[in-house]
Specification:
Elements lengths: L6 H4 L5 H4 L14 H16 L4 H19 L4 H14 L6 H16 L3 H38 L6 H8 L2 H20 L4 H29 L17 H18 L16 H12 L3 H24 L1 H13 L3 H31 L3 H7 L15
Helix pairs in contact: 3-7, 4-5, 5-6, 7-9, 8-10, 9-10, 12-13, 13-15, 14-15
Length: about 375
């Protein structure tokens, strides 16, 4: 199925008004009245219209979602169908909800060769699950959706802190949304021919894989490790400064690793190798006794933080290590390694911080002597080997 909403990849945008991005309502929470919900929903649609001409926004979205699919490796035929569906629906402004729904249903009917009765059943089940999710998550979802759309309308970037806050509320909705889609698929499957069912099962497996990847990304964003490029916002004017900052950071890391004698001095995700890196960095830059003492203090602090992180995540890391050792299929091994890299990303961030703080110790003369930083090698993994 293709019902994984676009914001699962691109964040709390306008569709958050319909699916929610928040924790479930607790029994003691005061639910807004139907009239209050209607007013808030109207406010959301008005805010969406403040984002400017939808043709322009849709073009940005089309590029962004394409980049997300490309980077995540969602390239199978079912993935490409989902991508085409998302783009087709998104060309219709979000305030034209009925038209969006019609586009979606026509595409689903064409995909699975649904009868009119099956199409009606699909529509009814989707309406029911959509209303259930809206009612369950509406109270906390609405402020998040309003905040996201207002930022877009004002031309302001999202911040890692914002995305971390939004992401911390996403897990219940992600799990609930997946279960809703699986329920709809299960009901529709009962009416299908074997050929229809085989195709839908293939699409459902692809959706489940995308969902798992999104859950992993959300875990990273919760820790403040959000990059606009995670949402395909590489060329979004509002995020140009943040994207440039991230690119400069990557270039700096690559340049540091390209210094003579440092090519194999450290692995960013292995704190046991950092001592050698600090020692050789100081020697290459000509550190004096005071600088060396400061560098050692920074190293001690960063290594301690890395060890604390590793201890707190020891169970997850041990499981991944066992899975990696047991995997024989190259594709499966690569997938597990990707998960391992994601789990260790916070340690890599600590190494980046270490490098930045070492740079801050340099005198003007040392900086001038070092010359301009070398450009980053495209696609190279800092310190690999």
């Amino acid at each position: 199925m293709v019902c994984d909403r676009r914001w699962l990849m691109l964040g709390a945008m306008s569709v958050a008004a319909a699916t929610g991005t928040a924790r479930a309502q607790s029994p003691g929470d005061a639910m807004p009245t139907r009239q209050e919900q209607s007013k808030q929903f109207d406010d959301l649609l008005k805010q969406a219209q403040q984002m400017g001409p939808w043709d322009r926004q849709s073009q940005l979205n089309e590029e962004a979602v394409g980049l997300v699919f490309q980077r995540q490796g969602w390239s199978s035929e079912p993935d490409q169908f989902a991508l085409g569906m998302l783009r087709e629906v998104d060309r219709v402004p979000p305030w034209q909800m009925q038209q969006r729904q019609d586009v979606f249903l026509r595409s689903m009917q064409s995909r699975y060769n649904l009868t009119e009765a099956q199409k009606t059943l699909l529509n009814g089940k989707l309406q029911y699950e959509g209303m259930r999710l809206t009612f369950k998550y509406f109270k906390d979802a609405t402020p998040i959706a309003m905040e996201a759309m207002k930022a877009r309308a004002d031309g302001k970037p999202f911040t890692p802190e914002q995305v971390a806050r939004w992401s911390r509320t996403m897990q219940p909705m992600l799990d609930d949304g997946r279960q809703s889609i699986e329920r709809v698929a299960g009901t529709l499957s009962e009416t299908m021919t074997p050929e229809q069912r085989r195709l839908m099962d293939t699409d459902l497996k692809a959706f489940q894989k995308r969902h798992e990847d999104v859950v992993k990304m959300v875990g990273k964003w919760e820790q403040g490790q959000w990059d606009p490029r995670d949402w395909g916002l590489d060329h979004d004017p509002a995020h140009a400064a943040l994207v440039a900052s991230k690119q400069a950071e990557q270039a700096q890391m690559a340049a540091l690793q390209q210094m003579p004698g440092l090519e194999r001095a450290a692995r960013p995700d292995d704190e046991s190798s950092w001592e050698r890196y600090v020692r050789e960095f100081g020697a290459a830059r000509g550190f004096d006794a005071v600088q060396t003492k400061s560098a050692r203090a920074i190293l001690k602090e960063q290594v301690s933080r890395a060890k604390n992180f590793r201890a707190a995540h020891s169970a997850q890391l041990a499981t991944l290590q066992r899975d990696l050792a047991a995997a024989s299929d190259p594709a499966k091994k690569a997938e597990i390694q990707k998960d391992m890299d994601g789990e260790l990303a916070p340690i890599g961030d600590l190494f980046k911080e270490l490098c930045n703080r070492l740079e801050e110790l340099l005198t003007a003369e040392q900086r001038e002597r070092a010359g301009p930083r070398a450009p980053a090698a495209a696609g190279a993994r800092a310190g690999s080997g």
